[in-house]
Structure formats: structure tokens, C-alpha cells
Amino acid sequence: MPNFVKNLIRVLIFTTSLSILFALHGKIVFYDGTYVLGKVTKVDESSVYIIPVGLDTPEGVLVGNIDSLNMENGMVPVLNSNVKYFYQGGTFTPNNDDWMASNIQKNYHEHINLEEEFQTLNDPKKHWNYFNFSLLGGIPLFVANSLKEVEPSPREGQMADMGPNIGINIQFPYYPVGPVDISPGLRFMTFSYKADHLGDLKALQIGTFTNIDLRPILYFFPENLHLTVDAGINFNIATDLDQMDYNIDLPIGVTSLKDETYSGPGIHFGSSLDYYLTNIPIAFKLFFNANVVPQTPPFTSTFTYFGNVGLSMVLILKRNTKNNASR
User: Fold this and answer.
1) For an engineered disulfide with 174, which of 25, 28, 104, 183 has Cβ 3.0 to 4.6 Å away?
2) What digits encode the pLDDT tens for the residues 224-247?
3) Fold of the domain spanning 2-121
4) How far, in Å, CA of 286 to CA of 82, rounded?
């Protein structure tokens, strides 16, 4: 008797292992639109046996409750609570009692990418966990004294003529570091200013930055609203420089600015309030930045700064994994 029990247990284990081995990914859709994903081990005349995602053992679902059963190979063994194909041990067998099975199978097909859907359910990533690309536009609001007009300009004390800032950001996914999330990135941004004592400068700023998301600390914020701070280093180079016919005080020993060029390092730091849209891979950032840049020749070894505010539209570089699209 003990040997009989042992052999019976072995047979049951072997049978169960065999069914799991030949299981196929499938999706059971119920009449209310809900569904279950998992590995289908068996389909018979009364039930579908499936190992749901996250579980280890199969569960039976009555055929009468099932609108459709869609398999990863495109088969639809169950439709409208009717069993069109039996399945066991990796083999599909037509239900010959239903003469409409083959015709319905040809005319009904739901394209599902089960591998991507399983990945989405088991590893749901938020928008901020992906690479992103953004367009930004800003307007300078305040400047250092060195960017204000001086005597004898009729605009003495007023801010230099500052052009708008246009740029792009390329940002990596956020990674948890201690109590915050950190993301590195690249920035390309234009800036310009014109003043009687400085000349007319148009320049391009190329830099790297680190963005720190405070959302893990500010957990009481809505999930899609994030407060961030960032800082970075950059290099600035002139795209156009005109210093002729301006009242520029030349230092001793400098007689002409004809051959002078503009370039040099700088830094920027600031903050932003980010809002991620839920259903589409788009976000908007309301930002404030302080930019430290070199002055125009012959004072490029001296720095000045300006602060700007603006809006950035972010495109989340997320692959579309929406399923159930008709072929």
C-alpha cells in the first residue's frame, strides 16, 4: 500500500508538471470586460484551467462565464461560452460537436501581444522612469548689475535687451538615490543680450545637468505632480557677436575688439514643477533657472548671470504597449 501511494503521488506530480510544461500564455475575457492573464494548461468541455500571473497553481474557470479565450499563438479556443477547441499537453483538438468552430475561428481574431502585456503588469513603469526629450522656451526676468545699462546710455539702470531662450533637453530615467530620485541629462539652449557697454551677443549654451526629483519625500503631492531641482555645468559659445559702434570701456593695453571672440564655461541651477499626463506620454514643466555665463570681450574672464522662467513640453520616449488592437 505505501508503494501504491508513492507511485500515485509521482503520477500526479508528473501529470501536473507535464501540463505546466505545455502551458501557453492566454487571456480569458469575461462578459463584463474584465480579464485574467496567465498560462493556460487545459481546456475541456466545461472549464478552462489557467495559472494566473503571480500564482503557481492552475485554477478552473467555468466556460459559461467566459466571453473569449485568446491564446498567444492566435487561437481562440473559447468564444461566447462555446468551446471551439480542446487543449491539453500542447495539442489543440477541434470540438467536432460544434460545426461552426472552423468558420468562426477564421472570422474572429483578436491580436494581443501577451509578452508585452505580461511585462506591463509585472513591471508597471511610470512616465518618469523612461528617457524623455523636451522643448523649452524661457524669458529672462532679472539680471546681474553687469547686464544693466550704464551711463551715458539713455536707458541707464534698466535691464539689457535680453532675447528669449529656446532649447532642448535630453534626459535619462530617474534612479533612486537615498531619499530622492536622480536623473542626468543634456541641454542645448540659446541666449542673447544687447547693451551699450557690452555689445550685441547671441550665443549657444551646451551643458550637462543633474535633475533631482523630490517626489519620494513630498509623497503627499498628487502622483503626477513633481517638484524638482537641478544644477549643471555648461560651455557657452557665440553664434553672433557685434561690438562695433558701442560704448565699451576698453582696459589699458586693449585698443581694438576686432579679433575678440566669445566662449567660456558657465553653470546653471534652478527648479521646476512637473505635471505628467496620465493617458498620453506627455509632460509639462514650469521652470525657473539662474544662468551664470561669461561677459562679452574683453571681460570674458568675468561672469554675469540672468534668471529666466519658462515652460517645457516633454515627450516621454515610451514604447506603446496597448493591446487588443485589431489587425
Assistant:
1) 183
2) 999 999 999 999 999 999 888 787
3) SH3 type barrels. (2.30.30)
4) 55
